[in-house]
Design a protein that fits this description.
OB fold (Dihydrolipoamide Acetyltransferase, E2P), globular, 534 residues, six-stranded mixed sheet, 26 strands, alpha+beta, 11 helices
């Protein structure tokens, strides 16, 4: 399936890019990670690598030409694939945007006063777009405090997106004059994040100029550190520590801690307000959690006494917000229906046991389900489809999304071309995805492009459940636990191992008979597992 590659935003101030050179030409094979082109931004000429694989079918910007961020840069897809429909869609989209832009840029007769300007040498840093689906970001921690000197390339903050917590480095050198989004707060992409410039700059004037330039307004900081005169004897780090101490006494406390430290504290049941941070500006880091010993007073008195009501408000993470939005859209836009089956797993159990006796080999039942599902989807492309208002897209490649539970919710990394992979390859990739998902180390492109999704709760002892379709997929398979139960076999009651699966389908693309036929094929692969390797 052809994929549109847009002009990337390679710096926070980049509005357009110039293609210095193409490292691939039309018709060339492109592997994931290959350098597609060298792109000149407002700051540097940078290599731009491909996050997709296929053939370079179209070049939208010739060498030496410039184009705005998000303009059509290239199209990558299958060899010989017809991309005329995509080009027509992009042309129509571009025409619409040009019309809207022309309307918006009409001079207004009522404008009388010139807009305020940002002083030379002062840089307004905006909330970056760190993933393709990111709409807003949450500041997990600041690595610099107001008044600190910032060098180009230093890490300013850790920002939580809808997919991961990522380090955000500064493209500027100077003094951190203002923080626009406090730790734990969220702001839309392109909102004012910080101001960097020479010491003594009139921050209020810069904020006014940024506001007049349609920069999203942010709340004034609650401490007076930003507006302190240059002669103050309070160090920036001391001011940050003081602010943290002052806010820790109320119910809306803001505690500076790394994402890993927060995760470890949650797993161990440690109250972060009781932990003394040893990191920069008193930030709580991994070693502080590992070395934490509860005080005698804390250990002696229970957190909640008998009969006392207690509750805690936990701000929704970016991941949780996106999960809520997308699942609600799926549930209320796609007409779901469900097909449940029960498979005999005795042959699969014997097959796995024999397979795992091979040297350096280890596969799970989940690996068997992924492989069997991928092969069944090749025979039933309508289940491997996507719905659009004007057409149905039947995918002939199989990219299986495997749902992985993480502390903040759920992510779905994608096993690409699962039908072509051996069982051990599937097992290795799924395990790697699961480990990196829990550490928030998955790259955005590793969670994109699925054509079908599998959710397995069998390891938690869940016998049977239903899932919400992971759009734009047309179906999702829910896999339960393997259990032993009495069944009737050849007129006799015998004990067999069985597993229940439920297929949730979008009725717009997958009719009941189509879904049932897919499950019949899936049954053949799982109950006769030798078919997976021959």
């Amino acid at each position: 399936m052809a994929i549109i590659v847009n002009m990337p935003r390679l710096s926070d101030t980049m509005e357009e890019g110039t293609v210095s050179s193409w490292l691939k030409k039309l018709g060339d094979k492109v592997e994931e990670g290959d350098i597609l082109a060298e792109i000149e931004t407002d700051k540097a000429t940078m290599e731009f690598e491909s996050f997709n694989e296929g053939f370079l079918l179209y070049i939208g910007i010739a060498e030496g030409e410039s184009a705005a961020v998000d303009s059509l840069l290239a199209i990558i897809g299958d060899e010989g694939e017809d991309i005329s429909g995509l080009l027509n869609e992009e042309s129509a989209k571009a025409a619409t945007e040009e019309t809207l832009e022309a309307e918006e840029t009409q001079p207004e007769e009522s404008a009388e006063q010139p807009a305020a300007t940002i002083p030379e040498g002062v840089e307004v840093v905006k909330m970056p777009r760190l993933s393709d689906t990111m709409e807003e970001g949450t500041v997990a921690s600041w690595l610099k405090g107001v008044g600190d000197t910032v060098e180009e390339g230093e890490i300013l903050a850790e920002i939580e997106t809808d997919k991961a917590t990522m380090e955000f480095e500064s493209f500027y050198a100077g003094e951190l004059l203002h923080i626009g989004v406090q730790v734990g707060e969220s702001a839309a992409v392109d909102s004012l994040l910080a101001i960097i410039g020479p010491s003594g700059t009139d921050v209020a004037a810069v904020l006014a100029a940024a506001s007049s330039a349609d920069t999203p307004k942010t709340e004034e900081p609650k401490t007076t550190t930003t507006d302190a005169p240059p002669t103050t004897t309070t160090k920036p780090s001391e001011a940050v520590e003081k602010a943290v101490v002052q806010t820790s006494a109320n119910s809306n406390q803001r505690i500076m801690a790394s994402p890993l430290a927060k995760k470890m504290a949650a797993e161990k049941g440690i109250d972060l307000s009781q932990v003394q941070g040893s990191g920069e500006h008193g930030r709580i880091v991994k070693r502080d959690i590992e070395q934490f010993v509860p005080s005698a007073a804390t250990s002696a008195a229970p957190f909640v006494t008998k009969g006392q009501e207690s509750s805690e408000d936990i701000p929704n993470s970016q991941m949780r917000k996106v999960i809520a939005k997308r699942l609600a859209e799926s549930k209320f836009s796609a007409p779901h229906y469900y097909l449940s089956v029960e498979f005999d797993m005795d042959a699969a159990i014997a097959f796995r046991k024999q397979y795992n006796e091979l040297p350096d080999t280890k596969i799970s039942f989940n690996d068997i389900v992924v492989k069997a599902t991928a092969l069944a989807l090749k025979q039933h492309p309508q289940v491997n489809s996507r719905w659009y208002d004007d057409r149905m897209q039947l995918n002939h490649h199989v990219h299986i999304g495997v749902a992985v539970a993480v502390p903040d919710g759920l992510v779905v990394p994608v096993v690409r071309f699962a039908d072509e992979m051996a069982l051990p390859q599937i097992g290795t990739q799924v395990k790697d995805y699961a480990v990196r998902a829990r550490d928030k180390k998955l790259a955005p492109d590793e969670m994109e492009g699925s054509t079908f999704t599998i959710s397995n709760l069998g390891m938690f002892g869940i016998d049977e459940f239903t899932s919400i379709i992971n759009q734009p997929n047309s179906a999702i398979l829910s896999v339960g636990a393997i259990v032993q139960k009495p069944v009737v076999k050849d007129g006799e009651i015998v004990v067999r191992s069985t597993m229940k699966l439920t297929l949730a389908c979008d009725h717009r693309t997958v009719d009941g008979a189509t879904g049932a036929q897919f499950l019949q094929t899936l049954r053949e692969y799982i109950e006769q597992p030798l078919r997976l390797v021959i």
